[in-house]
Amino acid sequence: MEASSLGSDLPLVRRLEAVGFRAWPAASVAYDGSWQIRLTGGHPSKRLNCVVPLDPSDYRDLDLRLEKARKRFDAYGRALLVRQTPLSPPALIEHLGTKGWSVFETTDVMTVDLTELELPDTLDYLPSHDIGRFIDANLALDGEDPASKSALAEIISSIKPASGFFIKETPQEGPIAVALCVQDNDLAGIMSFAVSPRHRRSGIGTEIFSSALRWARISGARSAWLQVGSTNAPALALYRKFGFRKAYQYHYWHQDARA
Predict the structure, then answer these.
(1) Which alpha helices (H) appear in the chain, and where do they start and end?
(2) What are the residue boundaries of the N-acetyltransferase domain, all occurrences included (predicted)?
(3) Which of 61, 97, 214, 222 is most buried, most CB within 10 Å of its CB?
């Protein structure tokens, strides 16, 4: 694994990590030094249940701190995960590798300059402020368990920056596309974007995605960011079409077996 900070714009990484935390808030946030420990009992999202080291120089007492974090995760019924960004100490990442940990998922963080992006002059879809309607549509399109509705509602209701919920529905099929855009000062994050399999490649996804970015720009955002699985080729192709480019990657680590 390459050094975590190699070739990265660390001030940009710090800023995107900060807005990312605000855009998808965990129920419980604690700190051990510069390590952020994020836990959410009601929802299994990895972003809401992980340890995120935020200072490359903070790597003292690794075994002790990882064990303390594990106990916190055990109390929530969660497996301990470490999220490696370019801010993670290389010594910690090397330590994880020697202790039987491995990477099981990689995500690209992508950005685009909204001020130079060609977007429609009008919004094809106006943002909704109906959280319940958005959550129902999002769960249906993602195929998630409806029982997670209350937990997802709690997460989305906790988002402090301005949020726009974009929903496309038909009388026959119900929801066919959704997008959630969170505008934090001059940065806008696309937190959820999904299109029904039957309507992919029809232009509907492009329309609703364009509307979310247009709304963000009208509201004062100058840049947009998003996170996408590094192996999700169709999504990556769409985002690149809009001008998004990779700013950095992050990796999730778990321990295959206790050493």
Answers:
(1) 10-23, 62-75, 90-98, 131-142, 149-157, 204-218, 233-241
(2) 121-259
(3) 214
